[in-house]
From TrEMBL:
Transmembrane segments: none annotated. This is Putative tRNA (cytidine(32)/guanosine(34)-2'-O)-methyltransferase. S-adenosyl-L-methionine binds at G53, W55, D105, D121, D147. GO terms for biological process: cell division; cytoplasmic translation; tRNA nucleoside ribose methylation. One of its GO terms (molecular function) is tRNA (guanosine(34)-2'-O)-methyltransferase activity. It catalyses: cytidine(32)/guanosine(34) in tRNA + 2 S-adenosyl-L-methionine = 2'-O-methylcytidine(32)/2'-O-methylguanosine(34) in tRNA + 2 S-adenosyl-L-homocysteine + 2 H(+). Residues 21-230 form the Ribosomal RNA methyltransferase FtsJ domain. It comes from Nitzschia inconspicua. Its EC number is 2.1.1.205. GO terms for cellular component: cytoplasm.
Length: 319
């Protein structure tokens, strides 16, 4: 997070460090939540393209607290009804029995308590299978989020195409893990071909909206598509994972989703009503240095040194 001095003067970058989030993106999810109430009644979630993990951190904060509360309530009800404490606890808590939050990324991710981290490419069949595994004999997730972005080339058409391929993979996986009525949120580059994706998403979900949180820079092509009330059922559950479109049909009605500009920083220490500008550089005081939240686990400039260490270790072991 934040290699450039521009990033360091960015207010969301600084707030993220202060709050212990691994990336400034955390605020995008928080701002989307304040507009759409994403975490209401959610106890199981999937975070696609999750590294370095700030969305998973937000999910953990929001869902773990809620799940523990639900379990405590269940325990209290069972005890009130004359149940035995050990019987009530039998089988462990839900979080002990199966993971509540599954996070996936191409890059390795430093562990987060309560999150099952999978390393893999979401456009590959093997990774998709690995994501489905924890849900096979369990209840489906109520929320799937995807903040996936390919390495941006600066060629808008190419970037939009690569992003849409990632989004299509995410949608297909979502149809396997999302409960009917569930919510899907994903990053989208609003380019020339986004209309086709909106139309397909509108077939799968009752409500499709586009949102741009204030923490997302105006200079960035990105917005977020918020899809609510998954229609599911036989028709839309478990779509084939291969192929490069979501639904094979010529009969898909166009859809122009409503647009929402959302979020300010009130509630994060700013005076209510003040909207901080993600594109503006704010003066910073060097003495306010905050150490990195999650130092990189793999540092390319140290790759050679790392390989040599491995080789030395290998030869010592052989001797
Ligand atoms: C903007 S970052 C996500 C930030 C994350 N939401 C957070 O809050 O920390 C985009 C991520 O997408 C991942 N990504 C890109 N293509 C991918 C793919 N095909 N499969 C899995 N992850 C991918 C990248 O490795 C990168 O970590």
């Amino acid at each position: 997070m934040g290699k450039l001095s521009r990033d360091k003067r960015d207010v969301f970058y600084r707030r993220a460090k202060e709050k212990g989030y691994r990336a400034r993106s955390a605020f995008k999810l928080l701002q989307l939540d304040s507009e759409f109430g994403l975490f209401e009644n959610v106890t199981r979630a999937v975070d696609l393209c999750a590294a370095p993990g700030s969305w998973s951190q937000v999910l953990t904060d929001k869902l773990m607290g809620k799940q523990q509360q639900n379990e405590q309530e269940k325990l209290n009800t069972s005890l009130k009804e004359g149940g035995d404490l050990e019987d009530a606890k039998q089988g462990g808590t839900i979080s002990e029995r199966h993971p509540t939050i599954v996070a996936v990324d191409l890059q390795p991710m430093a562990p987060i308590d309560g999150v099952l981290c999978i390393q893999g490419d979401i456009t590959s069949y093997e990774t998709a299978q690995a994501i489905l595994e924890p849900f096979e004999n369990n209840e489906r997730a109520q929320l799937v989020v995807c903040d996936g972005a390919p390495d941006v080339t600066g060629l808008h058409d190419l970037d939009e195409y690569l992003q849409s391929q990632l989004l299509i993979a995410a949608i297909k996986i979502t149809t396997h893990v999302l409960v009917d009525g569930g919510t899907f949120v994903a990053k989208i580059f609003r380019g020339r071909h986004a209309g086709q994706l909106y139309a397909q998403l509108k077939m799968l979900f009752e409500r499709v909206s586009i949102a741009k949180p204030t923490s997302s820079r105006n200079s960035s092509l990105e917005s977020f598509v918020v899809c609510q009330n998954f229609r599911g059922g036989e028709k839309f559950r478990n779509l084939p994972l291969d192929g490069d479109t979501v639904l094979e049909s010529d009969n898909i009605a166009p859809h122009i989703p409503p647009f929402f500009a959302c979020g300010d920083l009130s509630g994060w220490g700013e005076e209510s009503g003040i909207v901080m500008d993600a594109d503006k550089s704010y003066p910073m005081d060097e003495k306010d240095f905050v150490a990195p939240v999650a130092p990189p686990i793999y540092q390319p400039h140290l790759a050679q040194e790392y390989q040599e260490k491995l080789k030395t270790k290998d030869t010592t072991q052989k001797q």
